[in-house]
Design goal:
By secondary structure, this protein is an alpha/beta fold. The protein has helices at residues 10-20, 23-30, 37-48, 92-103, 117-124, 138-151, 169-174, 184-191, 194-203, 231-240, 253-261, 283-294, 309-317, 327-359, 385-393; strands spanning 66-68, 71-73, 77-79, 107-109, 128-132, 155-159, 244-250, 266-269, 300-302, 322-325. The chain has one domain (10-46, 64-350): Aldolase class I (TIM Barrel). Helix 5 (117-124) links the parallel strand 4 (107-109) and strand 5 (128-132).
Length: 396
């Protein structure tokens, strides 16, 4: 799919995607838990953080190269795990995988993806990680991890914040289910979007492809319990997974410390884009608190609410080592397929770059709490970094 429209921001991508996609699909991507207040809060929290420009620093040469878990990436961000990407445009998983390989960023393939983990590894090579949801049993879940390990995956992300998929009112209203079932409402919705419907049907209706069935008829069921992803399972997984292990969906400092003690290689601070709990605190507010709890050594990944390059820089300043992109990637693919995705990534790279220049930073490791604006700072720079962190934790 080629788009005549260029994308200059996530908002452009969202607007175009909303026009092009059937409502059922757009709502699946955008929807959050409850009244979706948490979803807005995730985004608004970024606007509360102000940055302090510095001038006349030598910032002519700038680099976004970032090291994470013994890999070097071309930018400090990657693509978060998202199920059923092929719903927004045919071959979306392949587009993400090839783009990730070409621009050297990581993508995390979801357990609920509609492409097999074997195919995606062929397309992305070492740039793909695998995200695991607890399946019907520990044995089946460990077997899925082993399958990824045998294919060559070296990074596994265990998602732990979906003991049960939440009630998402938009999906309930639209009759959206996985595996997909055609309802009269969906039929009319699709008929109003013939471009999407013809290309999606021609490519085959997407369905989850990485579920290991325990018996006949035991396919992936979106609403099945995933509560088996407990501390005992994490221990089993740690013993069996030889590569890097990341635990995703941490929002509490106590859970972060416990995960660290369980021997994970990195902690992924995320509230799942507030798709699970409406009253969850905005992820960005949790970052500095979790960083304080776990100390400087353990890498922190971050998502939920990132919409532009300044957001990425703010997350890095507040303690993240790496940032992951969720909905914006889906909007971009829905808006313009691979070209849309490339447009979005270009915007983000440029945005991070110019933000760094404004802050007097030439590399991501230059970023820190000293880049936050605090209105109590004296001419002698008397406001300390820990005072900045405290102000942030207090919600300012
Ligand atoms: C359509 C969609 C599907 C998702 N599927 C998964 C998934 O399969 N596994 C997972 O760990 N997270 C999943 N997530 C959550 C994302 O990984 C990420 O945490 C979230 O999108 C971040 O919020 P943001 O998109 O508002 O920035 C999904 C998110 C969306 C929007």
């Amino acid at each position: 799919m080629r788009s005549a429209h260029r994308i200059y921001s996530t908002e452009d991508a969202r607007r175009l995607a909303k026009k092009r996609l059937p409502r059922t699909v757009f709502d699946f991507v955008e929807g959050g838990a409850g009244r979706e207040v948490g979803m807005s809060r995730n985004v608004e929290q970024f606007d509360r953080i102000l940055l302090q420009p510095r001038v006349m620093a030598d910032v002519e040469e700038r680099s976004q190269t970032t090291r994470l878990l013994e890999s070097r990436y071309g930018a400090p961000f990657g693509v978060a795990p998202m199920g059923m990407c092929n719903l927004v445009c045919p071959h979306a998983d392949r587009m993400i995988a090839e783009t990730a390989r070409d621009v050297n960023i990581p993508m995390c393939l979801s357990s609920a993806a509609s492409s097999t983990l074997e195919h995606v590894y062929e397309w992305a090579g070492k740039n793909v990680w695998f995200q695991l949801y607890f399946g019907q049993s520990s044995e089946i879940s460990l077997a899925t991890a082993e399958r990824a390990q045998n294919v060559g995956y070296s990074t596994l992300v265990l998602t732990v914040d979906v003991p049960q998929v939440s009630r998402r009112v938009r999906d309930l209203r639209n009759g959206f289910t996985m595996p997909f079932k055609m309802t009269p409402g969906a039929f009319f919705d699709f008929a109003r979007h013939p471009g999407w419907s013809i290309s999606t049907l021609a490519a085959g209706v997407p369905s989850p492809k990485n579920h290991i069935a325990s018996g006949p008829g035991e396919g992936f069921v979106r609403n099945a319990s995933r509560a088996g992803a407990d501390w005992a399972f994490l221990e089993q997984l740690r013993a069996r997974w030889h590569g890097k292990l990341i635990v995703k969906g941490i929002t509490s400092p106590a859970d972060a410390v416990r995960a660290q003690q369980a021997g994970v290689d990195a902690i992924y601070v995320s509230n799942h884009g507030a798709r699970q709990l409406d009253g969850v605190p905005p992820s960005l507010r949790l970052l500095a608190i979790i960083r304080q709890a776990v100390g400087p050594a353990v890498p922190l990944l971050f998502d939920s609410g990132i919409r532009n390059g300044e957001d990425i820089v703010k997350a890095l300043i507040l303690g993240a080592d790496f940032v992951m992109l969720g909905r914006p990637v889906m909007y971009a693919l829905g808006a313009g397929g691979k070209q849309g995705l490339n447009d979005l990534l270009r915007c983000l790279v440029e945005d991070v770059d110019t933000t760094m220049a404004q802050l007097g930073a030439t590399s991501v490791s230059d970023l820190g709490l000293h880049n936050l604006f605090v209105d109590r700072e004296g001419a002698d720079g008397s406001e300390t970094n820990s005072a900045r962190a405290k102000l942030h934790i207090a919600g300012q």
